Amino acid sequence: xxxxxEQKNLxxxxxxxxxxxxxxxxxxxxxxxxxxxxxxxxLSIVKNSATAEDLMQETYLSVRKSACNxxxxxxxxxxxxxxxxxxxxxxMRRLQRQEPADLSEHEEAEGEDGISRAVDHMILRNAxxxxxxxxxxxxxxxxxxxxxxxxxxxxxxxxxGTVLSRYHRAIRKLQKSVKEEAF
Length: 183
Prior knowledge:
Order of helices and strands: HHHHHHHHH
Radius of gyration: 18 Å
Mean pLDDT: 79
Structural class: mainly alpha
Number of domains: 2
Distance between the termini: 37 Å
Strand content: under 5%
Low-confidence stretches: 1-8, 101-111
CATH architecture of the largest domain: Orthogonal Bundle
Helix content: over 70%
């Protein structure tokens, strides 16, 4: 767990400035230190792993391009999250204007592994649909990336108590849903 904490401590205003100055190593460091929470945030909005991966790459291209416009405030992760959220919401608006996609596009590999992945994907998608957007973000940031609730509260700009209550309520909702599906 120390490795994740070390990565988070590397996210500084100075690192963003190095990226703005064209430092490739700084960009790689920034990417590795922030990619998991950024992916989870985007996934919580778009609810599709392939789209989330694409948007995550767009996020980092945008970060690299606009790092020179970053205003140091001691919150580089919040800045990156803002870029990621904006891209995710733009994609959601774009998708709403389009016709629904053919479901056959999303069929995965053949065989038992493909079926297992498809079932896991459906379960994840249904679970994500159950939760409100903020609750999805909190759960994914805590469970998938291992962020502490204090860190999530800072990133989401919510009081710690609100983050804790939303998390526990969301987990109860998911547990109830799983129990209902089991019977």
